[in-house]
Specification:
Blueprint lengths: L3 E2 L5 H7 L1 E4 L5 H15 L5 E2 L4 E3 L7 H7 L2 H11 L4 E10 L27 E7 L10 E3 L19 E2 L7 E5 L4 E3 L8 E9 L19 H6 L6
Parallel strand pairs: 1-2
Antiparallel strand pairs: 2-9, 3-4, 4-5, 5-11, 6-9, 6-11, 7-8, 7-10
Length: 232
């Protein structure tokens, strides 16, 4: 069963389970505003089309609501608890899975996917998924292998076991250890499945990309630290 609550998980709980759903992380009005912005961006020339999904990266460049999400104090609470202080944000992007899109491959996320020899015994990073549309087994919700966050290796093409869909409502926050074997599910509905992805690493991990230039997204020291523009 997918672990869920209306608050952030404890460190001990999350290290043991490797997954959590924070129910009602965003209220419906805030979700609706982000959904409108997301639809516009995904229909624009900024959208990267792949066989599996549509993506738009660096959302902090595309409006104050995304910057507000990045700076949400509850995200800081979450990352402080699970990764320690001053965690870096390595991704803030849109992901849309269209009906009938090609299935995603099983994978793990940065920095584990960039290690010739994967480090064991530490959390290192989180992958968070914020649905803007309903996540279900039919709509292509993120699928993951429970307990796989402790295997510390790349998953095979067919990992075996029974994948668990991360069923969630718009505004819930799905939190996975970055070493969890996961993929986007197959969208068997007639509507697109849309989410915001946020990934975080411990403060000492090399950032996945170069820090951005100063802009409206870097008006506070906390935001600059979050984006790797400044050391804490």
């Amino acid at each position: 069963m997918l672990e869920a609550a209306t608050a952030a998980p404890s460190a001990a709980h999350f290290h043991r389970n490797g997954h959590h759903v924070w129910r009602g992380f965003l209220d419906p009005d805030r979700v609706a505003g982000l959904r409108t912005l997301a639809d516009d961006l995904l229909a624009s020339d900024l959208a990267l089309h792949t066989p599996e999904s549509l993506r738009v990266f660096q959302l902090f460049r595309h409006g104050a609501p995304f910057v507000d999400l990045m700076n949400d104090p509850r995200l800081t609470e979450l990352t402080d608890t699970l990764l320690g202080p001053h965690a870096l944000m390595n991704d803030l992007s849109l992901n849309r899975v269209e009906p009938g899109a090609k299935p995603d491959r099983w994978h793990i996320d940065y920095p584990y996917n960039d290690m010739p020899q994967i480090v064991e015994g530490s959390l290192l990073a989180l992958q968070c998924v914020l649905p803007l549309t309903p996540f279900s087994a039919e709509s292509g919700a993120t699928e993951f292998i429970p307990g796989s966050h402790q295997r510390f290796k790349q998953p095979p093409l067919s990992p075996g076991g029974t994948p668990l869909p991360a069923a969630a409502e718009p505004g819930d926050l799905i939190v996975l250890a970055a070493s969890t074997w996961h993929r986007a599910g197959v969208n068997r509905t007639g509507l697109p499945r849309t989410a915001i992805l946020l990934s975080f690493t411990e403060a000492w991990v090399r950032p996945m990309a170069e820090a951005p230039e100063p802009g409206p997204w870097s008006l506070t020291r906390a935001a600059r630290v979050r984006l790797g523009m400044e050391r804490a």
